[in-house]
Structures are given as structure tokens and as C-alpha cells.
Design brief:
Radius of gyration: 16 Å
CATH topology: Tetracycline Repressor, domain 2
Largest sheet: none
Number of domains: 1
CATH architecture: Orthogonal Bundle
Structural class: mainly alpha
Shape: globular
CATH class: Mainly Alpha
Number of strands: 0
Distance between the termini: 34 Å
Strand content: under 5%
Length: 144
């Protein structure tokens, strides 16, 4: 987990633009697991062997290193680039998409280039799936 965090933080630090930091970190995350597929298996083994553990190692490390991303998102909100909402909501959804992607990639043997997969995930996270014309009930003010 330290290697993953170092890898994503190192790649994100190369960007000056805050949104590009997210793009670079996303790509680095997916690339890391493509290069270290055994870690996905370790996550499963940890769950099987240490079922009584309250939080898996992945979650503990992720949460301990989330502060920088929360700060970045708050800055993007102040700049008007991200709509106001709880930053934990954003990182929870984003993490679920990425975490799910590494398991899907591993178990289905997907060999999509990490850069392309990162672009697809980021497109949906950043822009959503609905057009501005769609007014969907049950969402916060339709599309935003």
C-alpha cells in the first residue's frame, strides 16, 4: 500500500493543475495494479484469513492518506470547478469506481490500457452520463 500511495502521489505531484493531479493519480493507480496484479489476490486473502478485522489494510492506508485529496477537492470547490458537496462523498464514489475496476480487471483479465480506462472513468466522474436536457427526478436539482 505504501508503494501504491507513493506511486500515485509522485505522479500527481508532476501536475501543476489540480484537475490534472486527479487525472495523473487515477492513471497511476490503474497502472500500479496492472503491474502488481498479485496485490488484488492479497486483498482477497486478507479478507479470507482475517475476517474479524474491522477494516482491511487497503482501507486503513487509503483513509490515512485521503487528507490531501480532500484539501484538493475543497480548493476546486472554492475555485468553482467542482460543485459544493461533502468531499468524502466524492472520494467514496471515486474510490469505489477505482477499487471495483482493479477487481474487474483482475478477474476478467481485462487488458485495456490504464490510460484509456482512466479517461473513461474520469469522463463519467467529471461529466456524468446525462445531457443538460435530462431532468431526472430524485437527483439533486436534475443534472449538475
Amino acid at each position: 500500500m505504501r508503494l501504491l500511495i507513493d506511486s500515485t502521489n509522485r505522479e500527481a505531484a508532476k501536475a501543476r493543475d489540480p484537475l490534472d493531479r486527479i487525472v495523473r493519480a487515477t492513471r497511476a493507480y490503474l497502472l500500479f495494479f496492472r503491474e502488481h496484479p498479485g496485490l488484488v489476490e492479497l486483498f482477497l486473502q486478507e479478507r479470507a484469513v482475517f475476517r474479524g478485522r474491522r477494516r482491511p489494510t487497503y482501507s486503513l492506508h487509503r483513509d490515512a492518506n485521503m487528507g490531501v485529496w480532500h484539501d484538493l477537492l475543497r480548493a476546486l470547490m472554492r475555485a468553482g470547478k467542482v460543485r459544493p458537496m461533502p468531499v468524502a462523498r466524492i472520494t467514496d464514489v471515486f474510490d469505489a469506481a477505482l477499487y471495483g475496476a482493479i477487481f474487474t480487471n483482475h478477474f476478467e483479465g481485462k487488458r485495456r490500457p490504464p490510460g484509456r480506462q482512466a479517461r473513461d472513468i474520469l469522463d463519467i466522474v467529471f461529466h456524468g452520463i446525462l445531457s443538460r436536457k435530462a431532468g431526472v427526478q430524485g437527483t439533486r436539482g436534475g443534472t449538475q
